[in-house]
Amino acid sequence: MTGLGLQNSRARLAMLGVIIIGVVVLLQQLRQPRGPSQSVLFTAPAPTNRVKLSASEPLSPAETNLLQHLKSKAAELKAAKGSVEGRQTFADLRRYLSNVPRESAATAIKNWLDTGEDAPTQLEFKVGRDGSLKEAPSLRVFLLDYLAQIDPAAASSCAEKVLSTMNSPDEWAVSLRSYALA
């Protein structure tokens, strides 16, 4: 029992260490004086034809249905009494998302993330062997991670928005990864 707790603590410390190192390197890069030919310009990735990046574009019926499904899953998570219900809701959501076209899923996820809504899951921040999250403490963190798996360009765009705020360290961690990998 204590061995498992020690492993979790070590994993958290390792993840925290990686995040801190990444932030320090980023800050050092930003502080270095640059000449005109070396200036750093952070721009959003070019819009792709995969995800609707502007709010003025109407959602397709499939995207609207998916957005409603995300809202209902958020309500389920908010009403959940424990981590078992959170895991089950994520399993259902992952299964649902895997059965819709990636373009529709990415667009609906991005639109839902833009609302700023969130729902706690009563789960921990756990990274799997492949680098994606095994468990997520909130629906937003889960969706940011899922978006990175299905559309890295859209995930990078969302990451820029998250990284411009200091709302959630968990969202920051996933966003740093998404931004770096895009």
Quickly count the helices.
Answer: 7
Mean of all residue-level pLDDT scores = 81
Give the SSE order as H and E letters: HHHHEEHHH
Terminal CA distance reads 39 Å
**How many β-strand runs?**
2
Structural class of the secondary structure composition? mainly alpha
Biggest sheet strand order reads 1-2
- Approximate strand percentage: under 5%
Form type: globular
Uncertain segments are 34-55
Rounded to an integer in angstroms, the radius of gyration calculated over CA atoms is: 18 Å
Helix amount, in percent? 55-70%
Major β-sheet profile: 2 strands, antiparallel
Describe this structure in words.
The chain is an all-alpha fold. The chain has a domain at 59-181. It contains seven helices and two strands; from the N terminus they run H-H-H-H-E-E-H-H-H. It has helices at 2-31, 61-79, 83-98, 102-114, 139-150, 152-163, 169-181, and strands at residues 126-127, 133-135. A two-stranded antiparallel sheet has the order 1-2.
